[in-house]
Amino acid sequence: MPNNKPRIAVDAMGGDFGPRMVVPGALHAAKAGQAEVILVGDQDAIAAELSRRDVKGLPVSVVHASQVVEMDEKPSEAMRRKKDSSIQVACNLVRDGAADGLISAGHSGATLACAMFTIGRVPGVERPAIATFLPSERSHTVIADVGANVDCKPFHLLQFGVMASVLAKTMLGRENPVVALLSNGEEKGKGNQLAKETFDLLRASSLNFVGNIEGRDLFAGNVDVVVCDGFVGNVVIKEAEGLASSMGRVLKGELRRGFFGQIGTMLALNALKRFARLMDYTEYGGAPLMGLRGSCLICHGASNAKAMASAVRMAARFVAMEANSHLSEAVAANIDLTGPRRQAANEQR
Hints:
Elements: E1 7-11, H1 19-31, E2 36-41, H2 43-50, E3 60-64, H3 75-81, H4 86-95, E4 101-104, H5 108-119, E5 129-135, E6 140-144, H6 154-172, E7 178-182, H7 193-204, E8 208-213, E9 225-227, H8 230-255, H9 258-267, H10 269-279, E10 286-290, E11 295-299, H11 305-320, H12 323-333, H13 335-348
Parallel strand pairs: 1-2, 1-4, 2-3, 4-11, 6-9, 7-8, 7-9
Antiparallel strand pairs: 5-6, 5-10, 10-11
């Protein structure tokens, strides 16, 4: 019987812990029947981890890669000098049709560069964008871009919104995602020139655009998608991560203070566990790189086994839901707004 599970190439050498965390996480996803896993990296290091676990009957294979991209290397140099890096080999597998998608907790810049130039973009997509799932009061909100593109034109942000809406629909089940533009005020006309021009494009698009949103409202959960450039988006998520960590430490300290605090902790334990799950980045595992011909997730360098398993699951769902097909259709539906502007911008270069 043919195996119809999505085939996900996993950079086994990526992240702070390498195979020690990546391999058991990938195996967990394979054991759960979520994907066929292709572990890419040093075959001896991977074999050492596999030997400690029962992998009989699991849809797991190994593809050797003799090199690893180090975190201090420039992406362009890594692509040129390390043709057999685990990231490059994983991208080659997707390009050649041997895998449907890939995940990596390694060098994010190298992953972005390799994926874009090796796998290629969905037709009509000018720039792939990184999206992430931001915890909110109601569930999660997709925000894009969060780091791939720091200098953008308005039509780039429109495409980010289009692609993030597809992500919200396929991954979060939002039937008609509500889209907002991150700015320094809710009123039309607020923001810099980029925000003002992007506002008009989003309003003229097929998206369910409701206007601007301010930073203080990001976590309210009133919108499904937030659009911004990669510079602003990266600042937002780094601030959110830092705030969540600080608040968690403060809360833990207060709950441990005194007898009544400990009693209160016991009474609120279930609520605290639900809150922890909502804030836990490992629930999703990675940030999708939208706009490529295959599924690609960039994972946190400190990802543990749970995060890697979640990343495999998300990449597999992205494939199974045919998200790229829907994304291509959505981009085509708004090409009249981006095509002429893209041509004009290219002529000015």
